[in-house]
Every structure is written in structure tokens, then in C-alpha cells.
Design goal:
By secondary structure, this protein is α+β, with helices and mostly antiparallel strands. The chain has 3 domains: 3-52, no CATH class; 107-329, no CATH class; 371-470, Uracil-DNA Glycosylase, subunit E (3-Layer(aba) Sandwich), CATH 3.40.470.10. It is 42% helix and 13% strand. The chain is built from 18 helices and 16 strands. Strands 6, 7, 8, 9, 10 and 13 form a 6-stranded mixed beta sheet that branches. Strands 2-1-3 form a 3-stranded antiparallel beta sheet, covered by helices on one side. A 3-stranded mixed beta sheet has the order 14-16-15. Helix 5 packs antiparallel against helix 6. The longest helix is centred in the middle third of the chain and has 24 residues, at 286-309. It is globular and about 80 Å long.
Length: 471
């Protein structure tokens, strides 16, 4: 065997003819036993463990992911004090386990400034929030291993590596979307590397975020609340040298109000560190910011087209297929990522899966069969002309429950002008089915607090379906 080809992380190589074992007294007992048992093993093979930090460009990495000790093992007293404090606060008996649920998941980004042969990606501020369409535009690149960062140019990368398994990237994307929908985690992310071309932060922001997040009350982690109160601001598209810069794909970013209110719980004068140059990287150099956004958009388009070229786009769930089409070709059935219908598709799937159904189990129909000009409400004669088609669909499917999404659908089906606030959640009989009106997903985008009402309505739907299944 050519030992020069063996990584520095390989500490054991064992064959029938030769055993070479390096034991380190700093290893834990389980690790020492692992090494020893492999040394006694017969046959060819090798075992790997991280005996030393990774070597990058001839020097050990300073990346804390490879160097950090487990705090609960290194400082057991701190863990004990935290657990006992939580136990006392929650009034839990000693024999009852103390659970520490994950309250948030923030993706990490490795951002680089422009270097020779490498385009910039330092367009993100310290913390961003993206709604699911924009978040998954970023994930499309990350999960395929073709991120617009410097992975292919010698960088370690952070969220820039491909899947760590043998599954197709479509499986990872589908699983990630379902996980986000079912857990309800918001699409927050933090920056590492560079923020703008001037400020190198490495992992300082990533290590700071848990300190900030654990000091936020549940409602202070709600994106709708943060947006309403001015703690988050949207990054908007703009024109530069005759071209549209699609900066809205960056979602929302924290503001000076966020810094003063929440970073102030950790720092005495946080605005001295997190000034406008940090919060708004474009102020460090607009040309670099523009090229960074274009870099992201071009990479998203390039990667999305590969899904169509190899046919794997068929394996994506419906919302992701729509999104992939927009990334690859700019639109889907004439709609862009900003079209309400695209964003509503994600919400529809979320509502469906919340009651333990799959999108394939639900048939979605419309009162009318074409979109009126300007997306206006249909006229009565248009509804009358399309009703026979809707009746035929219902008669063929014979649904147990019909959910009328929004005021217009409910009023058309029930032939009533009652406001949706009065009739939502109630049961009506409609062509041998049970009809339950609820708010339209578009209303939820404007009024996130109404999601609780929709959830109550959907629980009623789930109960009716479960009753039908038992019978």
C-alpha cells in the first residue's frame, strides 16, 4: 500500500501481514477500544478517526467545527446547573427527564469576497429570514453540491457540500421541504466568512446566534412579528446599469432595531459592531453586491436546469417542481416566484400535510376554470357557466369532505353572502359531502395569526376523515 496516499486522519491500517496502530492517551475509552478492536481484526481494511484537525493549504484548520470539545463533556457542572435550573423552573420531579427541544434551526452560509478567479458571495448580512420559495432556491444549490460559493476553488465550505449520503439530491430536497413544513421552523440563516468585501467574520456570527436566540421569547422568533415591528426588512429588487438585480431572493435581513433590541441583551453597545456597513453589505461596494446576487441567480439557474436534463425533476414534490421550473426557465405557466399562486402552493401543501394527508390524496378544484383578467373575482355569469364542470368533478370523486378555501369559494358554493369570519369552521351539506369553509392561503400570507383558526378547521376535517376510515 502506498502510505503517502493515506490521509492524516487515518490512524490505523491493519492487514494479515501488518498491523500499525497509533494509540493516543487523550482518546476516550470507547475510542481506544475501537482502535484496539480494529487492530485485532483479520482481513484487509482500515479505520478512520479525526486524530488531528484537517489540514487546509498545509496548515491545521481553525474551523471550530473540527476543534470544539463537547461542552457537556468538558464542563459537566455547567450542564448539571442548567438542567437543574430548568427542572426547578418547570417544577419537574427528579425522576422525570428534562427535555430541551430544538426551538429553531438556522442554516449557515460560508460567504466569500471576490478573489482572483472567484466571484463574490458576500451579499448576506448577519442574519436573514427567507420564506420557503427563496430558502429552497438556496437549498437547490447547496444540496446538489454546486453552490455559488468557493467549494470548487479550494474552500472548506459550510452549506456548500453535496449530500452526505448516496441518495439523489431530489430526496434531500423533498425531505428538507417536508421537515420545514411539519416542524414549522422558520427559514432563518446566519453568515460566516465575509459580510461584504471588507468585513471578515469567520464563524463569529454563527457562534453568536445561539446566545441571541436563547434570549428571545417565542413570539420574538416569529418572522411575522419581526417583520411587523420593523426588526426585519425585505431586500428588494433594484435596477443597476439597465439590468434588474434580483436581490429579493435574499429574503429579509435584520435591521438596526433588531440589533439594538436583541443584540443589546448580549452587548452593551451592539450598534458599534453591527453598523450599516454590516447590516447592508451593498454599502461596502455596490458593484460587488450586484455581482454576488447575479452569481447566486446564475448558479441557481444552472443547477435547476440539470434536474430537467437528467429527468430527476419528476421525483420532486409539486411545489419544488414549480420552483425548479422558475429557477431554470424564469417562469412556470407564466408565473414567477413572486406570483401569489406559487407561494400559495407551498401553503396548500402545508395545510394538507398538517392533517396527515399527502398532496396526492387531495384533489384541488376551482370554481371557475380559467383565470379572470387581472386576477379579479369572477362574475356571476362566469360562475354559472363553469358550475357544471365543478359538479361533475365532485360527482366523480365523491369526496367525504370539501374544504372551501376563502370567502369567494364558500359564498359561491353555499349561495350565501355571509362573511367568511362567520361561516368558517362550520359544517354544511353540499352534494352529499360535508363542506367546511376556512380562510384562503392568500389571507394567511397577509394575516399569519389566522393560521391558528385554519388549524382548528383542519383538525375538524381530520376528525371527519378519521371517523369515516373507522366506519
Amino acid at each position: 500500500m502506498d502510505l503517502s496516499r493515506v490521509s492524516e486522519e487515518v490512524i490505523l491500517w491493519a492487514t494479515k501481514e501488518f498491523s500499525f496502530v497509533t494509540l493516543h492517551d487523550a482518546f476516550t475509552a470507547p475510542m481506544r477500544e475501537h482502535v484496539a478492536s480494529n487492530a485485532r481484526r483479520e482481513g484487509d481494511g482500515y479505520s478512520i478517526c479525526s486524530a488531528r484537525p484537517r489540514v487546509i493549504d498545509g496548515r491545521p484548520t481553525k474551523n471550530p467545527r473540527y476543534l470544539q470539545l463537547r461542552p457537556d463533556m468538558a464542563h459537566p457542572r455547567d450542564r448539571y446547573v442548567a438542567e437543574m435550573g430548568a427542572r426547578l423552573n418547570r417544577r419537574l420531579p427528579l425522576h422525570t427527564p428534562v427535555h430541551f427541544p430544538v426551538i429553531s434551526v438556522l442554516s449557515g452560509r460560508r460567504n466569500n469576497r471576490q478573489e482572483e478567479g472567484i466571484r463574490p458571495l458576500c451579499v448576506y448580512g448577519p442574519i436573514h429570514y427567507q420564506e420557503l420559495p427563496e430558502l429552497f432556491m438556496d437549498y437547490v444549490c447547496s444540496l446538489t453540491g454546486t453552490s455559488p460559493s468557493t467549494t470548487g476553488a479550494g474552500s472548506e465550505g459550510a452549506l456548500t457540500k453535496g449530500p452526505f449520503n448516496a441518495l439523489a439530491a431530489t430526496a434531500d430536497l423533498n425531505n428538507a421541504l417536508v421537515a420545514m413544513l411539519l416542524t414549522g421552523y422558520a427559514g432563518f440563516s446566519s453568515a460566516a466568512g465575509f459580510i461584504g468585501p471588507r468585513y471578515r467574520v469567520d464563524h463569529d456570527i454563527s457562534l453568536l446566534v445561539p446566545e441571541i436566540w436563547c434570549r428571545l421569547a417565542p413570539h420574538e422568533r416569529d418572522p411575522a412579528y419581526l417583520i411587523e415591528k420593523g426588526y426585519l426588512e425585505p431586500v428588494k429588487d433594484f435596477e443597476y446599469e439597465g439590468e434588474t438585480v434580483h436581490a429579493s431572493r435574499l429574503g429579509y435581513r435584520i435591521t438596526g432595531t433588531f440589533v439594538r433590541s436583541f443584540f443589546g441583551r448580549v452587548f452593551d453597545n451592539p450598534a458599534k459592531v453591527f453598523d450599516d456597513a454590516i447590516l447592508k453589505p451593498e454599502t461596502q461596494g455596490l458593484a460587488s453586491f450586484v455581482d454576488g446576487v447575479k452569481n447566486i441567480c446564475e448558479a441557481q439557474q444552472r443547477v435547476a436546469r440539470q434536474y430537467f436534463e437528467d429527468g430527476s425533476v419528476r421525483e420532486l414534490c409539486p411545489p419544488l417542481r414549480v420552483l425548479m421550473s422558475i429557477l431554470a426557465f424564469g417562469s412556470h405557466d407564466g408565473m414567477t416566484a413572486q406570483d401569489p399562486e406559487v407561494r400559495l402552493e407551498v401553503l396548500r401543501v402545508k395545510i394538507i400535510e398538517a392533517i396527515d394527508l399527502r398532496r396526492e390524496d387531495v384533489y384541488i378544484a376551482n370554481v371557475i376554470k380559467c383565470r379572470p383578467p387581472g386576477n379579479r373575482n369572477p362574475e356571476p355569469d362566469e360562475v354559472e357557466q363553469c358550475e357544471p364542470f365543478l359538479f361533475r368533478q365532485i360527482d366523480i370523486i365523491k369526496p367525504k369532505v370539501i374544504v372551501a378555501l376563502g370567502k369567494f369559494a364558500a359564498q359561491c358554493l353555499l349561495k350565501s353572502d355571509a362573511p367568511i369570519t362567520r361561516i368558517r369552521g362550520r359544517e354544511f351539506t353540499y352534494r352529499d359531502s360535508i363542506l367546511i369553509p376556512t380562510y384562503h392561503p392568500a389571507y394567511l400570507l397577509r394575516n399569519p395569526s389566522a393560521k391558528r383558526d385554519v388549524w382548528e378547521d383542519m383538525k375538524r376535517v381530520r376528525a371527519l376523515l378519521s371517523q369515516d376510515a373507522r366506519e
